Amino acid sequence: MRWLKWRAALVSFLTLVASAPAQRAEPTICAEEFCRCDSFTAVICNCTSDYEVTLRPDGAYRVPSTASGIIINGCSRVNFLPDLARNLIQLRTIELTNIMDVVINERALSWSPFSRESEMHPGLRILIQNSTVNQLSSYAIQGRVNDIIITDSRIHNVRPYAFSSLTGVRNIELKNNVLYNIERYTFSKFTTINFLLKGGYVDRLPSRFLSDVEITNLFRVEGISVKHISSVTFLVRSPKRVLVESNFIENLDPDGFHVVTKGPITFRNNTVTNFSKGALLGVTVDQEVMSVKGRQELLVDNNTITNIAPSSLIYNQTTLSLRVDGLNLNITCNCELAENWRQLLKEEAGIVTCWYDLEGHYMSVATFADSRCGAFKQTFWIFVVVGLVVVLIAASLITYFVVRRENEKKKKVQIVMPDGKTYRETEFHIVVERAELLTTNL
Ligand SMILES: *[C@@H]1O[C@H](CO)[C@@H](O)[C@H](O)[C@H]1NC(C)=O
Ligand SMILES: *[C@@H]1O[C@H](CO)[C@@H](O)[C@H](O)[C@H]1NC(C)=O
Ligand SMILES: *[C@@H]1O[C@H](CO)[C@@H](O)[C@H](O)[C@H]1NC(C)=O
Ligand SMILES: *[C@@H]1O[C@H](CO)[C@@H](O)[C@H](O)[C@H]1NC(C)=O
Ligand SMILES: *[C@@H]1O[C@H](CO)[C@@H](O)[C@H](O)[C@H]1NC(C)=O
Ligand SMILES: *[C@@H]1O[C@H](CO)[C@@H](O)[C@H](O)[C@H]1NC(C)=O
Ligand SMILES: *[C@@H]1O[C@H](CO)[C@@H](O)[C@H](O)[C@H]1NC(C)=O
Protein backbone atom coordinates (compact mmCIF):
# COMPACT_ATOMS: atom_id res chain seq x y z
CA MET A 1 0.00 0.00 0.00
CA ARG A 2 2.66 2.43 1.04
CA TRP A 3 4.73 1.61 -2.02
CA LEU A 4 1.71 2.16 -4.28
CA LYS A 5 1.18 5.58 -2.73
CA TRP A 6 4.77 6.52 -3.43
CA ARG A 7 4.40 5.27 -6.94
CA ALA A 8 1.29 7.36 -7.55
CA ALA A 9 3.08 10.42 -6.24
CA LEU A 10 6.02 9.77 -8.50
CA VAL A 11 3.80 9.34 -11.54
CA SER A 12 1.96 12.57 -10.89
CA PHE A 13 5.26 14.36 -10.37
CA LEU A 14 6.58 13.09 -13.67
CA THR A 15 3.35 14.07 -15.42
CA LEU A 16 3.73 17.55 -14.01
CA VAL A 17 7.31 17.84 -15.24
CA ALA A 18 6.37 16.60 -18.67
CA SER A 19 3.37 18.87 -19.12
CA ALA A 20 4.98 21.99 -17.68
CA PRO A 21 7.29 24.11 -19.93
CA ALA A 22 8.57 20.75 -21.00
CA GLN A 23 11.80 21.74 -22.68
CA ARG A 24 13.29 23.58 -19.77
CA ALA A 25 13.51 20.46 -17.69
CA GLU A 26 15.33 18.41 -20.29
CA PRO A 27 19.10 18.47 -20.43
CA THR A 28 20.77 19.83 -23.58
CA ILE A 29 23.94 18.70 -25.30
CA CYS A 30 25.78 21.05 -22.92
CA ALA A 31 25.30 18.36 -20.28
CA GLU A 32 26.85 15.54 -22.26
CA GLU A 33 30.12 14.03 -21.24
CA PHE A 34 33.01 15.81 -23.05
CA CYS A 35 30.71 18.68 -24.12
CA ARG A 36 30.12 22.10 -22.62
CA CYS A 37 28.61 25.38 -23.68
CA ASP A 38 30.54 28.60 -23.21
CA SER A 39 29.04 31.95 -22.29
CA PHE A 40 28.23 32.67 -25.93
CA THR A 41 26.56 29.26 -26.03
CA ALA A 42 28.94 27.74 -28.48
CA VAL A 43 28.66 23.99 -28.09
CA ILE A 44 32.17 22.67 -27.56
CA CYS A 45 32.84 18.94 -27.45
CA ASN A 46 36.40 17.88 -26.91
CA CYS A 47 36.57 14.13 -26.67
CA THR A 48 39.53 12.48 -25.05
CA SER A 49 38.27 8.94 -25.55
CA ASP A 50 35.94 7.05 -27.88
CA TYR A 51 32.71 8.98 -27.85
CA GLU A 52 29.80 9.56 -30.20
CA VAL A 53 28.10 12.93 -30.39
CA THR A 54 24.62 13.18 -31.88
CA LEU A 55 23.48 16.65 -32.81
CA ARG A 56 19.68 16.79 -32.38
CA PRO A 57 17.33 19.63 -33.31
CA ASP A 58 14.93 18.79 -30.44
CA GLY A 59 14.26 16.46 -27.53
CA ALA A 60 16.63 15.59 -24.75
CA TYR A 61 20.29 16.49 -25.34
CA ARG A 62 19.31 18.74 -28.24
CA VAL A 63 21.54 21.59 -29.40
CA PRO A 64 20.22 24.66 -27.51
CA SER A 65 18.36 27.09 -29.75
CA THR A 66 20.74 29.85 -28.68
CA ALA A 67 23.83 28.00 -29.98
CA SER A 68 26.23 30.28 -31.84
CA GLY A 69 28.72 27.60 -32.81
CA ILE A 70 29.29 23.87 -32.86
CA ILE A 71 32.94 23.02 -32.28
CA ILE A 72 33.86 19.36 -32.06
CA ASN A 73 37.29 17.84 -31.71
CA GLY A 74 38.56 14.28 -31.49
CA CYS A 75 35.25 12.47 -31.07
CA SER A 76 34.97 9.10 -32.79
CA ARG A 77 31.61 9.82 -34.39
CA VAL A 78 29.51 12.92 -35.04
CA ASN A 79 26.02 12.55 -36.41
CA PHE A 80 24.09 15.60 -37.65
CA LEU A 81 20.39 14.69 -37.56
CA PRO A 82 18.00 16.07 -40.23
CA ASP A 83 16.89 19.70 -39.77
CA LEU A 84 19.42 20.26 -37.04
CA ALA A 85 20.18 23.86 -37.95
CA ARG A 86 16.72 25.02 -39.00
CA ASN A 87 15.93 26.95 -35.82
CA LEU A 88 19.43 27.83 -34.68
CA ILE A 89 19.19 31.51 -35.59
CA GLN A 90 22.38 32.48 -33.75
CA LEU A 91 24.49 29.79 -35.43
CA ARG A 92 27.60 31.09 -37.23
CA THR A 93 30.33 28.46 -37.00
CA ILE A 94 30.64 24.73 -37.40
CA GLU A 95 34.07 23.28 -36.84
CA LEU A 96 34.91 19.59 -36.96
CA THR A 97 38.46 18.42 -36.30
CA ASN A 98 39.97 14.93 -35.98
CA ILE A 99 36.67 13.07 -36.23
CA MET A 100 36.77 9.48 -37.46
CA ASP A 101 33.20 9.23 -38.71
CA VAL A 102 31.06 12.22 -39.68
CA VAL A 103 27.51 11.72 -40.96
CA ILE A 104 25.54 14.70 -42.23
CA ASN A 105 21.93 13.75 -42.88
CA GLU A 106 19.45 15.35 -45.28
CA ARG A 107 18.92 19.04 -44.63
CA ALA A 108 20.92 18.83 -41.41
CA LEU A 109 22.70 22.06 -42.28
CA SER A 110 19.91 23.67 -44.25
CA TRP A 111 19.99 27.14 -42.77
CA SER A 112 18.01 30.11 -44.08
CA PRO A 113 16.78 31.95 -41.00
CA PHE A 114 16.18 35.30 -42.64
CA SER A 115 12.97 35.97 -44.46
CA ARG A 116 14.69 38.03 -47.13
CA GLU A 117 17.82 36.52 -48.62
CA SER A 118 20.65 38.99 -48.52
CA GLU A 119 24.40 38.80 -48.42
CA MET A 120 24.26 41.47 -45.70
CA HIS A 121 22.87 38.91 -43.29
CA PRO A 122 25.43 36.82 -41.46
CA GLY A 123 26.18 33.37 -42.87
CA LEU A 124 27.65 30.08 -41.71
CA ARG A 125 31.29 29.15 -41.76
CA ILE A 126 31.74 25.40 -42.10
CA LEU A 127 35.19 24.01 -41.40
CA ILE A 128 36.12 20.33 -41.51
CA GLN A 129 39.71 19.28 -40.87
CA ASN A 130 41.46 15.92 -40.64
CA SER A 131 38.19 14.03 -40.50
CA THR A 132 36.43 11.23 -42.31
CA VAL A 133 33.03 12.14 -43.68
CA ASN A 134 31.30 8.85 -44.42
CA GLN A 135 28.00 10.24 -45.56
CA LEU A 136 26.98 13.55 -47.03
CA SER A 137 23.29 13.23 -47.88
CA SER A 138 21.28 15.09 -50.50
CA TYR A 139 20.55 18.71 -49.52
CA ALA A 140 22.84 18.26 -46.49
CA ILE A 141 24.13 21.82 -46.77
CA GLN A 142 21.83 24.58 -48.03
CA GLY A 143 21.09 28.24 -47.49
CA ARG A 144 23.09 31.16 -46.19
CA VAL A 145 26.75 30.09 -46.07
CA ASN A 146 29.86 32.29 -46.13
CA ASP A 147 32.60 29.71 -46.41
CA ILE A 148 33.00 25.97 -46.73
CA ILE A 149 36.52 24.78 -46.04
CA ILE A 150 37.38 21.10 -45.99
CA THR A 151 41.03 20.10 -45.56
CA ASP A 152 43.07 16.94 -45.01
CA SER A 153 39.95 14.83 -44.89
CA ARG A 154 38.42 11.76 -46.48
CA ILE A 155 35.02 12.25 -48.02
CA HIS A 156 32.99 9.25 -49.15
CA ASN A 157 29.46 8.72 -50.33
CA VAL A 158 28.39 12.15 -51.43
CA ARG A 159 24.79 12.17 -52.67
CA PRO A 160 23.39 14.48 -55.38
CA TYR A 161 22.75 18.09 -54.32
CA ALA A 162 24.84 17.70 -51.16
CA PHE A 163 25.79 21.37 -51.47
CA SER A 164 22.91 23.13 -53.17
CA SER A 165 20.87 26.34 -53.21
CA LEU A 166 23.50 28.20 -51.26
CA THR A 167 23.39 32.00 -50.97
CA GLY A 168 26.06 34.61 -50.34
CA VAL A 169 28.97 32.19 -50.58
CA ARG A 170 32.46 33.66 -50.58
CA ASN A 171 34.84 30.70 -50.62
CA ILE A 172 34.65 27.01 -51.20
CA GLU A 173 37.96 25.32 -50.59
CA LEU A 174 38.63 21.61 -50.78
CA LYS A 175 42.27 21.00 -49.96
CA ASN A 176 44.24 17.76 -49.68
CA ASN A 177 41.23 15.52 -49.40
CA VAL A 178 40.59 12.02 -50.64
CA LEU A 179 37.25 11.91 -52.41
CA TYR A 180 35.48 8.84 -53.61
CA ASN A 181 32.05 7.61 -54.46
CA ILE A 182 30.92 11.09 -55.42
CA GLU A 183 27.61 11.30 -57.24
CA ARG A 184 26.50 13.91 -59.79
CA TYR A 185 25.32 17.40 -58.83
CA THR A 186 27.55 17.58 -55.76
CA PHE A 187 27.68 21.37 -55.89
CA SER A 188 24.53 22.63 -57.51
CA LYS A 189 22.92 25.93 -58.45
CA PHE A 190 24.54 28.71 -56.48
CA THR A 191 26.99 31.57 -56.71
CA THR A 192 30.35 31.78 -54.98
CA ILE A 193 33.21 34.24 -55.26
CA ASN A 194 35.99 31.65 -55.34
CA PHE A 195 36.14 27.92 -55.80
CA LEU A 196 39.32 25.98 -55.08
CA LEU A 197 39.97 22.27 -55.48
CA LYS A 198 43.55 21.69 -54.44
CA GLY A 199 45.74 18.65 -53.79
CA GLY A 200 44.65 15.24 -52.71
CA TYR A 201 43.23 12.33 -54.62
CA VAL A 202 39.96 11.80 -56.43
CA ASP A 203 38.90 8.50 -57.90
CA ARG A 204 36.35 9.79 -60.36
CA LEU A 205 34.86 13.23 -60.70
CA PRO A 206 31.32 12.66 -61.99
CA SER A 207 29.53 14.63 -64.62
CA ARG A 208 28.16 17.84 -63.09
CA PHE A 209 30.29 17.66 -60.00
CA LEU A 210 29.85 21.42 -60.22
CA SER A 211 26.45 21.94 -61.81
CA ASP A 212 25.26 25.41 -62.71
CA VAL A 213 27.68 27.07 -60.35
CA GLU A 214 28.47 30.74 -60.87
CA ILE A 215 31.98 31.68 -59.75
CA THR A 216 32.49 35.42 -59.85
CA ASN A 217 36.23 35.58 -59.28
CA LEU A 218 38.65 32.64 -59.28
CA PHE A 219 38.07 29.05 -60.33
CA ARG A 220 41.12 26.99 -59.57
CA VAL A 221 41.88 23.26 -59.80
CA GLU A 222 45.41 22.65 -58.65
CA GLY A 223 47.66 19.74 -57.76
CA ILE A 224 45.04 17.04 -57.64
CA SER A 225 45.51 13.44 -58.75
CA VAL A 226 42.40 12.21 -60.47
CA LYS A 227 41.64 9.03 -62.35
CA HIS A 228 38.78 10.38 -64.36
CA ILE A 229 37.31 13.76 -65.16
CA SER A 230 33.99 13.00 -66.88
CA SER A 231 32.24 15.02 -69.55
CA VAL A 232 30.84 18.27 -68.14
CA THR A 233 32.36 17.68 -64.71
CA PHE A 234 32.63 21.43 -64.26
CA LEU A 235 29.55 23.28 -65.49
CA VAL A 236 30.58 26.74 -64.43
CA ARG A 237 29.96 30.30 -65.51
CA SER A 238 31.42 33.78 -64.96
CA PRO A 239 34.89 33.28 -63.45
CA LYS A 240 37.29 36.15 -64.11
CA ARG A 241 40.18 33.70 -64.02
CA VAL A 242 40.39 29.96 -64.61
CA LEU A 243 43.51 28.06 -63.54
CA VAL A 244 43.97 24.35 -64.06
CA GLU A 245 47.47 23.72 -62.83
CA SER A 246 49.90 20.96 -61.82
CA ASN A 247 47.33 18.18 -61.82
CA PHE A 248 47.80 14.50 -62.58
CA ILE A 249 44.84 13.46 -64.70
CA GLU A 250 44.56 9.93 -66.07
CA ASN A 251 41.50 10.47 -68.25
CA LEU A 252 40.11 13.81 -69.33
CA ASP A 253 36.84 13.29 -71.19
CA PRO A 254 35.46 15.50 -73.99
CA ASP A 255 34.05 18.74 -72.66
CA GLY A 256 35.37 18.03 -69.16
CA PHE A 257 35.55 21.74 -68.45
CA HIS A 258 32.33 23.39 -69.57
CA VAL A 259 33.06 26.92 -68.54
CA VAL A 260 31.69 30.28 -69.70
CA THR A 261 34.52 32.51 -68.61
CA LYS A 262 34.93 36.26 -68.22
CA GLY A 263 38.71 36.12 -68.49
CA PRO A 264 41.71 34.07 -69.55
CA ILE A 265 42.07 30.34 -68.98
CA THR A 266 45.35 28.71 -68.10
CA PHE A 267 45.96 24.99 -68.47
CA ARG A 268 49.48 24.62 -67.15
CA ASN A 269 51.97 22.06 -65.87
CA ASN A 270 49.49 19.19 -65.91
CA THR A 271 50.31 15.56 -66.60
CA VAL A 272 47.55 13.88 -68.55
CA THR A 273 47.50 10.28 -69.79
CA ASN A 274 44.40 10.31 -72.00
CA PHE A 275 43.44 13.73 -73.30
CA SER A 276 40.18 13.25 -75.23
CA LYS A 277 39.32 15.08 -78.38
CA GLY A 278 37.60 18.32 -77.46
CA ALA A 279 38.47 18.16 -73.77
CA LEU A 280 38.64 21.97 -73.78
CA LEU A 281 36.01 22.57 -76.44
CA GLY A 282 33.40 23.45 -73.82
CA VAL A 283 35.28 26.54 -72.72
CA THR A 284 33.78 29.73 -74.10
CA VAL A 285 33.57 33.40 -73.23
CA ASP A 286 30.75 35.38 -71.68
CA GLN A 287 28.89 37.38 -74.33
CA GLU A 288 29.30 40.75 -72.64
CA VAL A 289 33.02 40.29 -72.08
CA MET A 290 33.31 39.07 -75.65
CA SER A 291 31.70 42.23 -77.03
CA VAL A 292 33.74 44.58 -74.81
CA LYS A 293 37.15 42.89 -74.57
CA GLY A 294 37.05 40.42 -77.44
CA ARG A 295 38.49 36.95 -77.48
CA GLN A 296 40.13 35.65 -74.35
CA GLU A 297 43.30 33.62 -74.20
CA LEU A 298 43.41 29.88 -73.66
CA LEU A 299 46.97 29.21 -72.58
CA VAL A 300 48.29 25.65 -72.78
CA ASP A 301 51.67 25.73 -71.10
CA ASN A 302 54.17 23.02 -70.09
CA ASN A 303 51.83 20.05 -70.00
CA THR A 304 52.94 16.46 -70.44
CA ILE A 305 50.41 14.38 -72.32
CA THR A 306 50.71 10.74 -73.41
CA ASN A 307 47.69 10.11 -75.62
CA ILE A 308 46.66 13.16 -77.60
CA ALA A 309 46.11 13.94 -81.27
CA PRO A 310 46.45 17.44 -82.74
CA SER A 311 42.68 17.44 -83.21
CA SER A 312 42.22 16.84 -79.46
CA LEU A 313 43.12 20.46 -78.89
CA ILE A 314 40.15 21.86 -80.80
CA TYR A 315 38.72 24.86 -79.04
CA ASN A 316 36.09 27.51 -79.57
CA GLN A 317 37.81 29.75 -82.09
CA THR A 318 35.06 32.38 -82.12
CA THR A 319 35.61 33.29 -78.48
CA LEU A 320 39.12 32.11 -77.61
CA SER A 321 42.65 32.42 -78.90
CA LEU A 322 44.86 29.42 -78.23
CA ARG A 323 48.46 29.84 -77.19
CA VAL A 324 50.53 26.70 -76.85
CA ASP A 325 53.62 27.57 -74.86
CA GLY A 326 54.71 24.11 -74.04
CA LEU A 327 53.28 20.72 -74.80
CA ASN A 328 55.40 17.67 -74.14
CA LEU A 329 54.07 14.70 -76.07
CA ASN A 330 55.05 11.63 -74.12
CA ILE A 331 55.53 9.78 -77.41
CA THR A 332 58.80 8.74 -79.04
CA CYS A 333 59.63 11.20 -81.84
CA ASN A 334 58.87 9.94 -85.34
CA CYS A 335 58.27 11.59 -88.67
CA GLU A 336 54.59 10.69 -88.86
CA LEU A 337 53.99 12.34 -85.51
CA ALA A 338 55.93 15.41 -86.59
CA GLU A 339 53.89 15.64 -89.78
CA ASN A 340 50.60 15.35 -87.83
CA TRP A 341 51.55 18.23 -85.54
CA ARG A 342 52.90 20.40 -88.35
CA GLN A 343 49.48 21.82 -89.13
CA LEU A 344 48.93 22.97 -85.55
CA LEU A 345 52.45 24.31 -85.39
CA LYS A 346 51.77 26.45 -88.44
CA GLU A 347 48.59 27.92 -87.00
CA GLU A 348 49.77 28.44 -83.43
CA ALA A 349 53.27 29.60 -82.76
CA GLY A 350 53.72 27.02 -80.09
CA ILE A 351 56.35 24.71 -78.83
CA VAL A 352 55.40 21.08 -79.07
CA THR A 353 57.98 18.51 -78.09
CA CYS A 354 58.22 14.76 -78.41
CA TRP A 355 60.33 12.24 -76.51
CA TYR A 356 63.75 11.81 -78.13
CA ASP A 357 64.64 8.28 -77.12
CA LEU A 358 68.29 8.34 -78.23
CA GLU A 359 69.19 11.11 -75.82
CA GLY A 360 66.43 10.67 -73.25
CA HIS A 361 64.89 14.13 -73.30
CA TYR A 362 62.10 16.09 -74.96
CA MET A 363 62.90 17.66 -78.32
CA SER A 364 61.00 20.20 -80.37
CA VAL A 365 58.86 18.43 -82.97
CA ALA A 366 59.87 21.07 -85.49
CA THR A 367 63.59 20.55 -84.88
CA PHE A 368 63.13 16.81 -85.15
CA ALA A 369 61.24 17.18 -88.42
CA ASP A 370 63.88 19.55 -89.83
CA SER A 371 66.79 17.28 -89.02
CA ARG A 372 65.29 13.83 -89.55
CA CYS A 373 62.19 13.95 -91.70
CA GLY A 374 61.11 14.90 -95.25
CA ALA A 375 61.84 13.05 -98.53
CA PHE A 376 65.31 14.50 -99.03
CA LYS A 377 66.29 13.97 -95.41
CA GLN A 378 65.33 10.34 -95.59
CA THR A 379 67.20 9.58 -98.86
CA PHE A 380 70.13 11.56 -97.54
CA TRP A 381 70.30 9.33 -94.49
CA ILE A 382 69.97 6.26 -96.68
CA PHE A 383 72.96 7.46 -98.72
CA VAL A 384 74.90 8.08 -95.56
CA VAL A 385 74.17 4.59 -94.26
CA VAL A 386 74.93 2.88 -97.60
CA GLY A 387 78.16 4.92 -97.91
CA LEU A 388 79.20 3.90 -94.42
CA VAL A 389 78.59 0.22 -95.18
CA VAL A 390 80.62 0.40 -98.42
CA VAL A 391 83.50 2.09 -96.62
CA LEU A 392 83.41 -0.50 -93.85
CA ILE A 393 83.47 -3.42 -96.30
CA ALA A 394 86.35 -1.86 -98.26
CA ALA A 395 88.29 -1.21 -95.08
CA SER A 396 87.90 -4.75 -93.86
CA LEU A 397 88.92 -6.21 -97.26
CA ILE A 398 92.04 -4.06 -97.31
CA THR A 399 92.91 -5.02 -93.78
CA TYR A 400 92.43 -8.69 -94.62
CA PHE A 401 94.77 -8.61 -97.59
CA VAL A 402 97.40 -6.55 -95.82
CA VAL A 403 97.45 -8.94 -92.89
CA ARG A 404 97.68 -11.95 -95.19
CA ARG A 405 100.62 -10.46 -97.05
CA GLU A 406 102.41 -9.65 -93.83
CA ASN A 407 101.99 -13.21 -92.69
CA GLU A 408 103.38 -14.53 -95.96
CA LYS A 409 106.41 -12.23 -95.59
CA LYS A 410 107.04 -13.48 -92.10
CA LYS A 411 106.96 -17.08 -93.33
CA LYS A 412 109.54 -16.29 -96.03
CA VAL A 413 111.76 -14.49 -93.54
CA GLN A 414 111.65 -17.51 -91.31
CA ILE A 415 112.69 -19.75 -94.15
CA VAL A 416 115.64 -17.56 -94.99
CA MET A 417 116.75 -17.02 -91.43
CA PRO A 418 118.44 -20.25 -90.38
CA ASP A 419 121.73 -19.46 -92.05
CA GLY A 420 124.26 -19.32 -89.23
CA LYS A 421 126.98 -21.56 -90.54
CA THR A 422 129.69 -19.07 -91.40
CA TYR A 423 128.63 -16.10 -89.22
CA ARG A 424 127.70 -17.98 -86.08
CA GLU A 425 129.00 -15.33 -83.63
CA THR A 426 127.21 -12.30 -85.08
CA GLU A 427 124.07 -14.11 -86.19
CA PHE A 428 121.58 -11.51 -84.92
CA HIS A 429 122.86 -8.58 -87.00
CA ILE A 430 123.02 -10.53 -90.17
CA VAL A 431 119.45 -11.73 -89.85
CA VAL A 432 118.21 -8.16 -89.55
CA GLU A 433 120.14 -6.95 -92.55
CA ARG A 434 118.99 -9.80 -94.69
CA ALA A 435 115.41 -9.23 -93.75
CA GLU A 436 115.60 -5.63 -94.93
CA LEU A 437 117.15 -6.66 -98.14
CA LEU A 438 114.53 -9.23 -98.84
CA THR A 439 111.72 -6.74 -98.17
CA THR A 440 112.86 -4.44 -100.93
CA ASN A 441 113.26 -7.34 -103.32
CA LEU A 442 109.75 -8.57 -102.80
C1 LIG B 1 40.71 19.83 -26.09
O1 LIG B 1 41.47 19.08 -25.14
C2 LIG B 1 42.87 19.15 -25.35
C3 LIG B 1 43.53 18.22 -24.36
O2 LIG B 1 42.81 18.09 -23.20
C4 LIG B 1 43.31 20.60 -25.23
O3 LIG B 1 44.69 20.69 -25.49
C5 LIG B 1 42.56 21.46 -26.24
O4 LIG B 1 42.90 22.81 -26.11
C6 LIG B 1 41.06 21.30 -26.06
N1 LIG B 1 40.37 22.01 -27.14
C7 LIG B 1 39.30 22.77 -26.92
C8 LIG B 1 38.69 23.39 -28.12
O5 LIG B 1 38.83 22.95 -25.83
C1 LIG C 1 43.76 13.24 -37.41
O1 LIG C 1 42.65 12.60 -36.79
C2 LIG C 1 42.93 11.31 -36.27
C3 LIG C 1 41.64 10.77 -35.71
O2 LIG C 1 40.66 10.74 -36.70
C4 LIG C 1 44.01 11.42 -35.21
O3 LIG C 1 44.32 10.14 -34.73
C5 LIG C 1 45.25 12.09 -35.79
O4 LIG C 1 46.20 12.30 -34.76
C6 LIG C 1 44.88 13.43 -36.40
N1 LIG C 1 46.03 14.00 -37.07
C7 LIG C 1 46.44 15.24 -36.84
C8 LIG C 1 47.63 15.68 -37.63
O5 LIG C 1 45.92 15.96 -36.02
C1 LIG D 1 54.54 21.40 -61.84
O1 LIG D 1 53.89 20.22 -61.42
C2 LIG D 1 54.72 19.37 -60.63
C3 LIG D 1 53.93 18.13 -60.36
O2 LIG D 1 53.59 17.57 -61.58
C4 LIG D 1 55.09 20.08 -59.35
O3 LIG D 1 55.93 19.27 -58.58
C5 LIG D 1 55.80 21.37 -59.69
O4 LIG D 1 56.03 22.10 -58.52
C6 LIG D 1 54.95 22.21 -60.62
N1 LIG D 1 55.70 23.36 -61.05
C7 LIG D 1 55.19 24.58 -61.05
C8 LIG D 1 56.11 25.66 -61.50
O5 LIG D 1 54.05 24.81 -60.69
C1 LIG E 1 43.67 5.48 -71.76
O1 LIG E 1 42.72 5.10 -72.75
C2 LIG E 1 42.89 3.76 -73.20
C3 LIG E 1 41.92 3.54 -74.34
O2 LIG E 1 40.68 4.07 -74.06
C4 LIG E 1 42.65 2.81 -72.03
O3 LIG E 1 42.81 1.48 -72.45
C5 LIG E 1 43.65 3.13 -70.93
O4 LIG E 1 43.38 2.33 -69.79
C6 LIG E 1 43.56 4.59 -70.53
N1 LIG E 1 44.63 4.90 -69.61
C7 LIG E 1 44.41 5.18 -68.31
C8 LIG E 1 45.62 5.51 -67.51
O5 LIG E 1 43.30 5.19 -67.83
C1 LIG F 1 57.04 21.78 -66.38
O1 LIG F 1 56.50 20.48 -66.15
C2 LIG F 1 57.40 19.58 -65.54
C3 LIG F 1 56.73 18.23 -65.46
O2 LIG F 1 55.49 18.30 -64.82
C4 LIG F 1 57.80 20.11 -64.16
O3 LIG F 1 58.73 19.24 -63.57
C5 LIG F 1 58.39 21.50 -64.29
O4 LIG F 1 58.62 22.03 -63.00
C6 LIG F 1 57.44 22.41 -65.05
N1 LIG F 1 58.06 23.69 -65.27
C7 LIG F 1 57.41 24.82 -65.11
C8 LIG F 1 58.19 26.06 -65.39
O5 LIG F 1 56.25 24.87 -64.73
C1 LIG G 1 31.57 28.97 -79.32
O1 LIG G 1 30.99 29.82 -78.34
C2 LIG G 1 29.80 30.46 -78.80
C3 LIG G 1 29.38 31.45 -77.72
O2 LIG G 1 29.28 30.81 -76.49
C4 LIG G 1 28.75 29.43 -79.11
O3 LIG G 1 27.57 30.05 -79.57
C5 LIG G 1 29.28 28.47 -80.15
O4 LIG G 1 28.36 27.43 -80.38
C6 LIG G 1 30.60 27.88 -79.70
N1 LIG G 1 31.18 27.10 -80.77
C7 LIG G 1 31.54 25.83 -80.61
C8 LIG G 1 32.18 25.19 -81.79
O5 LIG G 1 31.36 25.22 -79.57
C1 LIG H 1 54.98 8.38 -70.53
O1 LIG H 1 54.49 7.19 -71.13
C2 LIG H 1 54.94 6.00 -70.50
C3 LIG H 1 54.37 4.82 -71.26
O2 LIG H 1 54.18 5.11 -72.60
C4 LIG H 1 54.48 5.98 -69.07
O3 LIG H 1 54.97 4.83 -68.42
C5 LIG H 1 54.97 7.22 -68.35
O4 LIG H 1 54.44 7.26 -67.04
C6 LIG H 1 54.52 8.47 -69.09
N1 LIG H 1 55.09 9.64 -68.46
C7 LIG H 1 54.34 10.68 -68.09
C8 LIG H 1 55.07 11.80 -67.44
O5 LIG H 1 53.14 10.71 -68.29
From TrEMBL:
Q: Which domain of life is it from?
A: Eukaryota
The reply to whether Signal figures as a keyword in the UniProt entry is: yes
Question: Which stretches are transmembrane?
Answer: 380-403
Q: What is this protein called?
A: Right handed beta helix domain-containing protein
InterPro entries, per this entry? Pectin_lyas_fold, Pectin_lyase_fold/virulence
What does the record give as the organism's lineage?
Answer: Eukaryota, Metazoa, Ecdysozoa, Arthropoda, Hexapoda
Q: Which organism is it from?
A: Diatraea saccharalis (sugarcane borer)
Q: Among its keywords, does the record have DNA-binding?
A: no
Q: How far does the signal peptide extend, from start to end residue?
A: 1-19
Keywords, ordered alphabetically: Membrane, Signal, Transmembrane, Transmembrane helix
